Amino acid sequence: MGKKQKYIFVTGGVLSGVGKGVTAASIGAVLQAKGAKVSIQKCDPYLNVDAGLLNPREHGECFVTRDGAETDLDLGHYERFLDIELTQKSATLSGKLLFDLIADERAGKFGGKTVQLVPHLTQSIQRAILSAADGSDIHIVEIGGTVGDYEGLSFIEAIREFSQRVGRSNCLFVHVVYVPFINTSKEFKSKPAQNALNDLRGFGIVPDAVVVRSDDPAPNSIVKKISLFSGVPEENVLLMSNADTVYRVPILLAKSSISKLLSNFSGLKNRPNLSAWKNIVDQQTSKPKQSITVGLVAKYIDNEDTYMSVIEALKSAAWHEKVGLSIRWINAEKATNNDFKKVDAIVVPGGFGERGIEGKIAAARYALDNNVPYLGLCLGLQVAVIAAVRKAGHMDANTNEVNPKCKHNVVYIMEGQAGKESTGGTLRLGDYPAKLVKGSLAAKMYGHTKIIERHRHRYEVNQKFLPEIIKGGLLVSGLSPDGKLVEFIEAPGNDYFIATQAHPEFRSRPLRPHSLFVGIIKASRMKLK
Questions:
Q1: pTM for the whole thing?
Q2: Domains of the chain
């Protein structure tokens, strides 16, 4: 750690999901625009070892890093905003740290000492922060949950101690709070935010800045009240109501008085170059001449966060192609051909389990038979090959995940993973290479034949059924380098029908949308002409 390395800690109060992740990422984007080398990290107080087994309906998508860490969706925000590829060091869960501490204690590494939350867990947290910060000018740490949560107390104490360790002048504390609007009395209430700030101060941390979140714009009187009760200067209290797009937040931050605080803290006095962000906002808020509807065939339709990266990848591709985008949510458990007829393109995202599988197979079959642009992601590839084999005449074709005893197990368990289907840590995770068939649609979309994509799956296409897959209208257009694993399939008879065993949505960026998503948007636009 260099003497001039700086640290920014983003905490939250009142309620979770208030926007700490977007705030942290936006601060990083502004500092990047000033020329700083930024790193970023999420510290989550959950006692889970990783996010792999968290319910996506409650916690949103499980984001996967290039080195295979299963993480919180906020890392997706970080990667999209900062255009960097993060690693497992950027995701720190309490369960993992405790797991390692207990393992060390059992191995006798503490020499008989009593193992305690303070100092042992707090020091583990600090080591994780230092490790994730290595090589950057400024390291941003988001503390998950809300201040005052029992499970989060060790993290708050750890960053308090950390500021003493590296010097208070090298640490900036930003607290994000929520101010609700009470419709009956027609007024904003700052009391919950005041209490959250008092909680933070009670733990020994006085914030340098407060970001006040609200659904609608709050009056300046809220700034005065928050400043009075927190001790934070008014110029460092920022009102941040819901923006028309999250990509406007870096621009709003740069225009606010907090920008001066960031400049003084970082030592970078130059004005940030945010032209790229302005271009994104202009693209997103412009009124295109054409608009398309993409059907997202999913089983979690009550929480958009479950498919956050897929949705953002589709939006970015639509901006790139200068078309309007409407996403129609299709319930995979109830999907019929009437649902598929109402959309211009179909996307089947990844997923696990039996629920909704038949609806996804039906979606792939409809797209295959009716030349509807189709993009399958992970499970979206698996249901496509099942649909093709059924089209070839084997109506019992299925995946062993749903029917372990099916005769035509077109998708089967990976070698060495049988019996571990309900456990974590047994998936094929992170970056894996693939070799694309020269001249294929996949090779055309990527522009070359050797590619790398991130994965999160356990089941594979059973190549024993390649003749049936071909008979059903599909071709394998990408394999693992050793030829054992199917990575891409496509339908040569269709205008745009492609699926991958990978998750390309994780590598899509607002300014660099992934080519597979651009492809389906472009194909849909062409059909409108």
A1: 0.91
A2: 6-176+245-280 (3.40.50.300), 287-528 (3.40.50.880)
